[in-house]
Amino acid sequence: MNLIWTPAQLAMLAKVVDLNGFSAAARALGVPKAAVSRAVADLERTLGVRVLERTTRRIALTAAGRLLYPHARRVGEESDAARHAIARLQTPEGRPLRVVADPTYGRVLLAPLVPRFLESFAHVPLEVTLDAGQLAQGSWDVAIRTHPPADESILRRLLGAPPALLCATPQYLQQRGSPERPDDLRVHDLLTPEHSEPAQFRLQLARGTQRAEVPLAPKLAVDDPAVLHAAAAAGLGIGLLPEFLCRQGLATARLKAVLPEWTVPPAAALYALFPRSLESDARVQQFVDFLAANIVPALALPPPARSVPPATRESASAQEARLN
């Protein structure tokens, strides 16, 4: 029985349990999901017992897994400690990791993650700047932005492409009428991301196997999604916006989805960039891995709400609390 890979398999098991999923663990480790699944399966085969019970919604440790998990977590922690020691050796003492982000994505997506990162990686001080101007200056260790430059000295990690949707204020739709099919958009004021052909924007929509393409002349085209969101919230037209920017407005009925049964292409993909010279810097890899594991779920569409009978709401909540 070959046990040479067991420590790595134990570390992967701990990551799967800590992040509650194979996909999240794979993103954090920077490996394919299949590699994580295979490592856990090989570990189970080597030990001769099942350590995880897998369901469609979550994973759970078996009795054997609960015995094994503390040891697996210590293996992962020792591996991280070794990387941290090398990082301290390679990095000027006390210098914070310089992070710069586009303001819109920084406020909505990065800001909630900073405290969580500092709790998990207390040895990595951060210097965070939300300034689009500094993205082009290069005086950073990690940059979070869309449209990365074509520069071979800069490496990139795809964090995800936010789902997009069409939305407008109820007041605008009451005055102008709600579109019932894609072609109805032609008579509306559209607020869209900046594109390569200023004279015309061709919006592609899909519903099941149906496809539609609508040529439009936007009332406003701008490369800043925050400006588009502000314009849509002010009732200036129908905005083509990243879904995560619209969640609060939709939840409070200040915005209303337009043609909700149709999907539109995702917003511009979001990347984490870092200089090639920092490729082996453990702090950079820890921060980028953390972003990949946590921003991707934040970009995903929320699951559809399910109605729970009143008599079972309290018990369902209590059950969920126990599972967490």
General description of the model:
With 324 residues, this protein is α/β, with parallel strands linked by helices. It contains 12 helices and 14 strands. Strand 9 and strand 10 form a beta hairpin.
SSE string, helices as H and strands as E: HHHEEHEHHEHEEEHEEEEHEHEEHH
Rg, alpha carbons: 23 Å
Indicate the percent of residues in helices.
Answer: 40-55%
The biggest sheet, with number of strands, parallel, antiparallel or mixed sense and barrel status, is: 5 strands, mixed
Separation, N- and C-terminal Cα atoms? 36 Å
List the helices and strands and how they pair.
Elements: H1 6-19, H2 22-29, H3 33-47, E1 52-54, E2 59-61, H4 63-90, E3 97-101, H5 103-110, H6 113-120, E4 126-130, H7 132-135, E5 142-146, E6 154-160, E7 164-168, H8 170-176, E8 190-193, E9 201-207, E10 210-216, E11 220-222, H9 225-233, E12 238-242, H10 243-251, E13 256-257, E14 270-275, H11 282-299, H12 310-323
Parallel strand pairs: 3-4, 3-5, 8-11, 8-12
Antiparallel strand pairs: 1-2, 5-14, 6-14, 7-12, 7-13, 9-10
Helix pairs in contact: 1-2, 1-3, 1-4, 2-3, 2-11
